[in-house]
Amino acid sequence: MLVMKVIWSFYLLFLFLMWGGEAFAGELSERLANFPQWEKLTSVQPASGDLVYPEWMAGSWKVTSTLVDLAAPLAPEIVTPGFEGNRRQLNQPVSFVVRFVREEAHTSWLKILPEIDDKSPNLVADRAFNSLNLARAYLGDEAVLSVKVDPDSPNRQITFLRSSRQLVSIVTARATETTPNGKFITTEVFQQLFKGGSRPYLNSVESTTAYHKVSTSNPTIEADQVTAVYLSPQDPDYFKAVSQPVALYRYRLEFFPQELPTTPKE
């Protein structure tokens, strides 16, 4: 069913969006190491501003994303829609293009890589570009019309789908961590609202990603990402789940240098 496929395939969409304060030392690293024994993260800070990435992530990249593991901690009592269907995506790589730009270029929407203004200190993700490419890679070009980021807030994004459907994402909290061995780790929590079906559907999602630069150029960057899905307070099973996620997805991301930026047609 397209509605459920859209809701449960979009958890990667916002890994390129966020910025936040430092987490307690080692907490995010430990969290990834403890998969799938997770509970709701409590040390994140309220969302504000944009995520500033390390310099070694500058440029355009072809990303290959592979679902390598998944878990339903509260099964069989609580299993999210689409969870069993997502087993078919195990070890099936999906590729798309992303890019990271200077903050001034990103906010003006006028300047794209590789023409970078070295005077601008902040490297950020081109959120609309990245999310549109990712959404179309998973759902197809015809299913996804466009992605718009609120010009007044990088924390609100809308994905426009066929048949007047929309996926609204609002970032609520986030944190970052840099490890002694050079890994850059982010975690972000956001609310997702799917509109346009028979009734709106709301859930809470946390995505934690550890990036590291490798010594070769094929790929140049690798990342380990875990996405946790929590029930919203409106769900009748909310109090049964308490602070535990109802679904966990683990991805391996590989970043390959892209010579020229690719702009998707809207």
Summarize it:
The chain is of the alpha+beta class and 266 residues long.
Describe what you observe in this structure.
- The chain is of the alpha+beta class.
- It has one domain (2-258).
- It is built from six helices and eleven strands.
- Strands 1, 2, 3, 4, 5, 6, 7, 8, 9, 10 and 11 form an eleven-stranded antiparallel beta sheet that branches.
- The radius of gyration is 18 Å and the shape is globular.
- The relative contact order is 0.24.
- Mean pLDDT is 80; it is low at 1-21 and 108-118.
The number of distinct β-strands equals: 11
Which geometry do the CA atoms define? globular
Number of helices: 6
Strand content: 35-45%
Helix content: 10-25%
- Which parts are unreliable, with pLDDT below 50 for 5 consecutive residues or more? 1-21, 108-118
- The residue-averaged pLDDT reads 80
State the separation between the terminal residues, measured CA to CA. 24 Å
Rounded to an integer, what's the Rg over CA atoms? 18 Å
Number of domains: 1
* Class from secondary-structure proportions: alpha+beta
**SSE sequence, one letter per element:** HHEEHEHEHEEEEEEHE
The largest sheet, given as strand count, sense and whether it forms a barrel, is:
11 strands, antiparallel
Organism: Nostoc punctiforme NIES-2108
Domain DUF6816: 47-257
Protein name: DUF6816 domain-containing protein
Pfam family, one: DUF6816
